[in-house]
Design brief:
Elements (H helix, E strand, L loop, with lengths): L6 E2 L4 E2 L4 E2 L4 E2 L3 E3 L4 E2 L4 E2 L3 E3 L4 E2 L4 E4 L12 E4 L4 E2 L4 E3 L8 E4 L4 E2 L4 E2 L4 E2 L4 E2 L4 E2 L4 E2 L4 E2 L4 E2 L4 E2 L4 E2 L4 E2 L7 E4 L4 E5 L1 H6 L4 H16 L4 H12 L3 H12 L7
Parallel strand pairs: 1-4, 2-5, 3-6, 4-7, 5-8, 6-9, 7-10, 8-11, 9-12, 10-13, 11-14, 12-15, 13-16, 14-17, 15-18, 16-19, 17-20, 18-21, 19-22, 20-23, 21-24, 22-25, 24-26
Antiparallel strand pairs: 26-27
Helix pairs in contact: 2-3, 3-4
């Protein structure tokens, strides 16, 4: 299961059935769970914990030091969950002491070639990051988000669950859940209705979210006025409640 040309530090911990391809390097304090496959020419640095049944393709660099000039050798971490696919030339950095010291990726994510995930990012479950998309430091990405190819996300931005960014989007502010944005800078372009249908949202719920979108983006109301009109909708639609919670916690202002 481990190619003889691979270099594995004695202080690394690999489950018995982990496969490691030729010329890969696994450093100390790297923990890899059962069923995970490491392709050729992959570099893994610790402290990093990788869960079960992940697939990491060739030339990826996982768990390297953060690209942050303030970093001075602090012991920070990367944690990756289960069943993630990480394609060629992906780079994922550990956290920094200035944040919580941890970069974390959830489960069942599909991370395509040349994606960069910077220090202290938090990624949920079932996301899709298309080729060349990049997250700056301290970015939060909710469950079921799709980033179109070459999307760029500014540091400290928050992208809500089920959001979608078009190809080449430049995200400089927080993206609320359930909506589609595109452009440079990114602008809203409606509810991510097709994505919601694929994930089991019914048509009445999608219609309520469309009404919420019109209030938030098409009514000409100030944000606090729009929030006041959204609150009655949240009584019968949990998704609108989630939208309101996101708005209340936004720190960089909304894409609007």
């Amino acid at each position: 299961m481990i190619h003889p040309s691979a270099i594995i530090d004695p202080a690394a911990s690999l489950a018995d059935d982990v496969a490691v391809g030729p010329f890969s390097i696994i450093g100390p304090e790297v923990e890899i769970g059962s069923g995970t496959t490491i392709g050729p020419h992959v570099t893994l640095r610790g402290p990093t914990r990788i869960g079960r049944d992940n697939r990491i393709f060739q030339y990826s660099s996982i768990g390297e030091q953060p690209q942050d000039k303030k970093y001075s050798g602090e012991k920070t971490r990367l944690e990756i969950g289960d069943r993630n696919t990480i394609r060629e030339f992906v780079t994922i950095n550990r956290g920094t002491a200035q944040d919580r010291g941890l970069t974390s990726i959830g489960n069942d994510n599909w991370i395509m070639a040349y994606v960069h995930v910077a220090h202290d990012c938090v990624i949920g479950d079932r996301t899709v990051f298309a080729n060349g998309s990049s997250l700056a430091g301290h970015v939060l990405v909710g469950d079921d988000v799709i980033l179109g190819g070459f999307s760029l996300v500014h540091q400290f931005c928050n992208i809500g669950a089920h959001a979608f960014t078009g190809m080449g989007s430049t995200v400089k502010q927080d993206v609320p859940p359930f909506i589609t944005v595109s452009g440079n800078p990114a602008e809203p372009h409606g509810v991510n209705a097709e994505g919601l249908r694929r994930r089991g949202f019914d048509q009445p719920e999608i219609q309520v979210l469309r009404r919420a979108y019109r209030i938030l983006y098409k009514s000409g109301l100030r944000l606090e006025q729009a929030v006041a009109q959204l609150q009655p909708l949240a009584e019968d639609c949990a998704a609108v409640g989630e939208l309101l919670d996101f708005i209340a916690s936004a720190k960089r202002g909304l894409v609007r």
